[in-house]
Sequence to fold (94 residues):
Amino acid sequence: MEKPNVTRKLRNKELNIKVQLITIDSMKTYFKTALIDSGYTSSCISQKFIQENKLETKRYTTPITCYNANRSLNKSGSITDFIEINMIIGDHIK
Fold:
């Protein structure tokens, strides 16, 4: 099994890991660094990354309201779209 390359920033308490992203529709591959947050229940992808790479998104039937840690509404608004993509960490596909 290939060992993933991990970078940890002790100051910010961030855990970053190198991943491979593969689009489901076109099988295009991207090599990126992902921020791991074990307390989160789903995954997020940068809107800028989606726009720069012209990735196809799908619209949620009901937008997902986003809240900050202090329970205020996020200034970026609700999540309205999603993307289906495979993520490979080492030899593990998620």
Q: What stands out?
A: DSSP finds one helix and seven strands in the chain. The chain has one domain: 6-90. Helices lie at 47-52.
